[in-house]
## 1
Amino acid sequence: MRGLWTILKKEFTRFFKDKKLWLTMLLPGVFIYAIYSVLGTVLQDQMTPSSASYSVLTMHPSEHMEELTARMLAGSNYEIEYVDAADMDGEEAKQLVKDGMFEAFLSFPENFDSLVGEEPETPLDVYLYYNSGDTDSSACYSLVTEILASYKDELFEPFRVNHLTAADLAEPTDIATMAFSMIVPYLLLIFVISGAMSITPESVAGEKERGTIATILVTPVRRSYVAIGKILALSAFSLIGATSSFLGTVLSLPKLMGLPDFNLFDLYSFGDVFGMFLLLLSYVPFIVGLMSVLSTLAKSVKEATSSTSVVMILSMVCGLSSMLGLTPTLWMAFVPILNVAVGLSAILSGTASFLFSALSFGANIVYVVLLVFLLAKLFDSEKVML
Amino acid sequence: MDKGKWLTGRGAVCYNFGKTSKRMYCMEEILVVENLKKTFPLSAKQRKAQKTKLRKKVAVDGVSFTAYRGEIFGLLGPNGAGKTTTLRILSTLIKADEGDAFVNGKSVRKEPAEVRAQIGFLTSELKLEAFFTPDYLFNFFSDLHRVPLNVREERKKFLFEKFGIDKYAFTKVGDLSTGMKQKLSLVISIVQDPDIIIFDEPTNGLDVLTARVVTDFLLELKERGKTIVLSTHIFSLAEKICDRVCVIIDGKVARVDTIAALTAGQSLEDAFFDIYREVKGDEE
C-alpha cells in the first residue's frame, strides 16, 4: 500500500504543480459553459424571433381573417401583410412561394366570409401553402395556422384547413439546400481544423523541440521565407485533407437525406462552387498561420497541441452560426472564421452576395499576411526560438 | 623565439606553436570577437531556483578573442560558463547586447545573412527528423545553402563515403544508429564546405569510435585550411585537437593561449584548475 500511496502522491504533485495541466483540465468546462450559453440564447432568438414581417399571398381574401390577424398580432412585433392574388391562378401563386417571393399562399373559397356565416352543411376548404426549405416561410406558416385555428374556434369549425392536401411546397432540392447550408459549412470548418491540427504543431513546435530549426535558421535563407514556406506547405496539405472530407460529405449527404438521384450541380452553379473554394482558399492559410504562430510560441509539441485546440473550439462556435441560419451582415466579413462560416452558408442557401464573399476573402488574405509577418518576427526572436 | 609569442602583422599573425617549435605559421585573422556581452532575463521561477534576486543573468561578459585561418580554436569551461551562448552569437542565432564579432570581416550584428553563408554550425542538441533519409537531408540543406547541383553530388559522395553513410543513404534517419545519426548531423552542417565551422560540444554523447571519426575529421578539415571553433568541457579533446583555447569562466575570458603555453608541462586539466582557482579566489 505504501508503494501505491507514493505513486498516487507523485501523480497528484505533478498535476497540482503544472499550471498548464490545470488549464487543460478546466478550460473545456469553461468553454462548454460559454458555448452552450451563447448557443441557447441564439437558438432561442432564432426560434422565437422578437420581430418579423411576413407577406402572405391570398386568393379570395377574407376580411374577417385580416381583422382577426390585426387583433391577434396587436402589441406584438409580428406583422402579416395579405396580398391579393386576384390576377393569378393557384399554381402561379404556389411558384411565388417556392421562389421565396412570399412566405405563404392562403386560398379561401370565393365569398368565404359570407359563406361561413351561413353555417354550411359541409365544411369549407381553406388551403395554406408554405416552403419548409425556407425558415421564414415555416415561421409564417405556424403563425397563420394559429390565426386560422382561432377563426375556426370563433365559428364552431365551419371550415377545415388543408384537407387531404400537402401544404408543403418545398422540393427535395429546397430541403437539400437548407441541409447543405446548415451542415456543410460547420463540417468544412472542423475538417480543415482537424487536418491542420494533425500537422502544424509537429512541423513547427516539433522542429523547435528537435533542434532542427536552429540548423535551418543558420542557413542564408531569409526567415520570412521559412515562415511562408511552412504556411504554404501546411496549407496545401490541410486543403487536400479538407477537399477530401468535403467531397465525402457532399457525396454522402444526399444519400443520408434519402435523395439518391440528387446531383449537386443541379443545385449549385460553377460560380457557387468557385466562390466556396475561394473562401476556403483564404480560410485554410489563416488557420494554418494562426496555428503556426501558436505552435511557435509553444515549447513542445504537446504544448502546441493544447494551445491550438483553442482554435478548434473557436471554429466550432463560428461553425454553429451556419446551423442557426445567421444572416450575413457587412461587419461579419471582417471577423475571421465567422466570415467563412456565414459566407459558405449563404452560398449554399443561395443568398450569397458578391460583396460579402469578396470582403471576407480580402480580409482573410490580409490576416494571413499579418500572420506570416508575425511568424517571421517570431522566428527572429531568440527568446521564442531557442 | 619563445613559444607562444605573437608576431603581429596587418590582418595576419605569425605564431610559433609549442608542439612544432621548429615551424612557424603565418595566419590570417578569420574570426574576430570583440567584447561580446549577453544577458538573459530570469523568470521568478528561475530566480527562486538560482537563489538570486537579480532579474537578469549575465551569460557572456566582455568576451574577446581572435581565431585564425586553419586552426582549431576551443572554448573551454565548465557548464554554464557561456560557451554555448558565445557560439550561438557567432552563428547569428542570438544577438549580443553589446560588442560584435566579425567573420571574414562581416559583422554578425549588421550582416547576419552574409555571416550565415560562411559558417557551418552544429549543436549536440540536434535531432534529425526520423522519416527523412540522409540523401534527402543532404540535398535539402544543400539547397538552403545554394550549393550547385554538380558540387552537391560530388560533395555528398565524398562525405558519405568518408563517414560510412553511403550504405545508409536511403535509409530513414529513424532506423539509423545513434552514432550514424551524429555523423549525419555533422555532415549536413558542412554541406556548403564553409570556411568556419562552429561546433557546440562536437563529441558529446558519442561512443569512442564515432568520437574518433569526428575528431580525425576535424583535424583533416584543419589541414584543408578550415577554421574550427568548438566548445567543450572535455579536456582530453581540447588537448588533442585544439591549437589554442579560450578558457571561459562565469561568462568572462580567463585566458586565451596555445595548449603548450597554457599547460606549461602539466596536464590541461591541472592547468585549468589553476586558472579556475585564480579567477574564483576564495569564492569556491
Note: Residues 240 and 274 of chain B are 20 Å apart (CA to CA).
## 2
Amino acid sequence: MTVIIDYGVGNLFSLKSSLAYIGAESIVSGDADVIRKAQRIILPGVGAFEDASKKLASSGLDKVIKQEAENGKYIMGICLGMQMLFEKSYEFGEHEGLGLIPGSIVPLKGAVPDELKIPQIGWNALNITGGKDDLYKYTDNNTHVYFVHSFYAKTDEKYVTATTEYGIQVTASAKCGRVMGTQYHPEKSGKYGLEILKAFTELK
Amino acid sequence: MITKRIIPCLDVKNGRVVKGVNFMNLSDVSDPVSLAKYYSDCGADELVFYDITASAEGRGLFTDVLTRAAENVFIPLTVGGAINDVSDFDRVLKCGADKVSVNSGAVRNPSLMYEAAKKYGSQCVVLSMDVKRVDGKYAVFVKGGREMTQLEAVQWAKQGQELGAGELVINSMDTDGVRGGFDTELLQKICDAVSIPVIASGGAGCMQDFVDLFNKCPTVDAGLAASIFHFGDVRINELKKMLKENDINVRIQ
C-alpha cells in the first residue's frame, strides 16, 4: 500500500488515477495513522514552497514524514513535494524544508542562460546518473518526462540520480537513502512516467 | 534540451467531440476519451479539451468526460471554454485538468488571472486569445471571435504575463481555417514581448506548416491544431518524425 499524502496542496486526482491505472494499491490520506501504516509514502505538491510547507507543518505531518524516514520507509516527493524534502528553499525568502536530502532549492533564473524561458514547461530528456536501482528500474536513458518548475535542487552530485539539460544540468531527481524525489511529474509523463511510478510502488 | 510540443485540441459539445473525425482503428471516433487516448499513444505532448456547450446539462457531461480522460490519459490536460471565475478553475481542476485556459472571461475580468495564479500557481493559468488584424493593428476578439475588443494583442499578452498567466495560446483568426500555415508574423511579435511559453494556434494545414513554424519562430514552444489531426490529414507520430528530420527537437516515444 502506498499513501499519497493529502495536506491540502494541489490536485491529487491524476496521481491517484495513475497508480490505479498501473494496478498499484494506494490511498489518499492526511491521517497520521494511515501514513504510518503504509509501506510507501508519496509527497505531492504544486504551488509555492512557503505555503505548502506551512500547510504540512500545521497538519503535523512534517513530523510524521521525518519519523517514517527515520524508520526506513520509502518516500517519494514529486515536484514541489520533492523540493520540500531538501533542507532549505530560497523561493521568495528563505524557508526550511524537511531536511531529508542535503541541499537547497534555488531559482532557475540566474542559473540558466537568460534566453531560456522560466518556468521550464514541457518535456525534457532524463540523463540518468545514479544507476538503475529503484525509480529507474524500467527506464532508459534519454526518456522524456514532463517538467513544470521555476526552482531546482542544488545539491552534491552524489545525491543526484538524474539530470536534465536546460542550459545547465538541472537536477531531475535526487535520493538520499530511501528518500527520493522527482522534479518532473511522472504521473503526467505518459507511459514512461507510469513505469517510474510502478518502480517506486514495487520497492520494499 | 526541452522539446517543442504538439498539442491536439478537442472541441467537446454535449460529451462528444465535434469537427468530424475520420480515423481507422477507433471504434467510436467522437468519444473524447478514446480520441484522447489515441492521441496520447501517438505521441501528443499535451491535450486541450475545449468546452463548447452552452447548457448546464452539457457542462455536467463535459466534466464527466474530463474525469474519464484524466483517469486514462497521463499527459498534461488543459481545459478551456466557459471559464469565468475562480470557481470554474476549481470545478475542472478537481476533475483532473492540469491547466485552465481563460479567454473572454479574462477580458471581462483581468484580475481572474491574478486570483487564479495566486490560488493555483501560474503554471495552471493559460491566457488564450483570438487575434485578427484590424486597420493595421492586432485586435483581440472574444466570444469565439464574434466580438472585437479594444485590446491590442501584444499589450494584452504582456498584461496577461504580469497578472500571472504562465502560458499563452495565440490563435490567429486571419490564418485559422485557411490551412495555409501559422501566423508567424504575429507569433514572433508576441514571443519578442513576453518571457512565458507561447503556443501557436490557427492555420496548420500540413506537416510542413509545423516545420516552418518552429524554423521561423524558434522561440514558439508548441503548435496546436484540431481538424487536421481529427481528420487524419496529419498523424502526430509522422509529424514528430518529420520535425526531427528537420533538426527540431521533439519527443519521440
Note: The radius of gyration of chain B is 17 Å.
